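RECORD TYPE: inverse folding
INPUT: structure tokens
STRUCTURE:
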């Protein structure tokens, strides 16, 4: 039995792909820790979770130095099994009824002009956590009337009523990440559907056009998972076909060994080319670079062709 186990381990070791060396353009500088520590103390004091920590974001030091953090609603455990994500998988905790208030307090404490809210997937809940989302948006607006709210939502398993619950709370930006091209969905997002993602964005755009024209729709992807250049362009066309306003494109980085490997590191020149193509297709803004993430440089992302108001940004 022991010999058989050793043989299996040797076979698995031979099948493992060696990690690609990171290119120079992915090297990150660590700045002054003063503001980083202030953000960490605030997060811990309000019992909040950040995607910066849970997803092992490469920009954590830069953003926290700038008093920017990415918080997650619904705890730190996700019900999905995406091949790229470092967030814990399993049975989530009960929703914290004080979380919406704590998020709004964090936004007020940091005097933010633009707050971004994300979450784990909560497929264990009948509405996917939509009511909790809506309450958080309302609390942030109530306590911070000058602050814009951007939400990065899950797909709610295609539940249109759940999406409408979030939209009715009037976020200024509705973001749902496509994550990757259609061909790679089964491997990268086994619990999601490419067509369902586009449908969600289309429904949100319809709400924007008929009810709340101030809202913008947004989506993002990672590259380096095996897609081809033209497949990314085709995905961009798909997003524009459902009237998506803003797009982000960033390099996938393997968070740890049991996640999907990086197939290639995409050169900055390709990111720049995708940005130009995206703008030519009609996106209002395209954030495209190796270190781009959904809320990275959100302060510089445009709304209606204008720069977002100055001030700190928090992704909640």
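DESIGNED SEQUENCE:
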């Amino acid at each position: 039995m022991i010999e058989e186990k050793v043989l299996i381990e040797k076979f698995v070791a031979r099948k493992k792909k060696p990690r690609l060396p990171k290119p120079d353009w992915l090297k990150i500088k660590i700045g002054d820790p003063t503001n980083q520590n202030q953000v960490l103390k605030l997060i811990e004091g309000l019992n909040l979770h950040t995607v910066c920590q849970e997803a092992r974001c490469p920009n954590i030091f830069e953003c926290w130095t700038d008093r920017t953090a990415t918080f997650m609603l619904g705890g730190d455990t996700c019900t999905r099994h995406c091949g790229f994500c470092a967030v814990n998988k399993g049975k989530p905790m009960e929703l914290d009824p004080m979380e919406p208030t704590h998020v709004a307090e964090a936004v007020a404490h940091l005097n933010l002009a633009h707050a971004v809210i994300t979450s784990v997937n909560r497929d264990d809940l009948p509405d996917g956590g939509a009511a909790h989302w809506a309450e958080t948006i309302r609390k942030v607006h109530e306590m911070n009337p000058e602050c814009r709210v951007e939400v990065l939502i899950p797909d709610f398993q295609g539940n249109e009523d759940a999406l409408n619950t979030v939209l009715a709370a009037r976020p200024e930006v509705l973001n749902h990440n496509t994550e990757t091209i259609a061909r790679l969905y089964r491997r990268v997002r086994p619990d999601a559907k490419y067509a369902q993602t586009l449908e969600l964005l289309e429904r949100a755009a319809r709400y924007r056009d008929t009810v709340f024209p101030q809202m913008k729709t947004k989506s993002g992807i990672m590259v380096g998972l095996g897609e081809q250049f033209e497949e990314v362009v085709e995905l961009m066309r798909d997003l524009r076909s459902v009237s998506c306003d803003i797009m982000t494109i960033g390099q996938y980085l393997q968070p740890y060994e049991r996640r999907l490997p990086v197939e290639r590191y995409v050169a900055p020149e390709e990111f720049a080319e995708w940005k130009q193509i995206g703008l030519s297709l009609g996106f209002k803004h395209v954030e495209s670079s190796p270190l781009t993430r959904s809320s990275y440089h959100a302060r510089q992302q445009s709304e209606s062709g204008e720069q977002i108001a100055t001030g700190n940004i928090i992704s909640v």
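NOTES: The first helix runs from residue 2 to 15.
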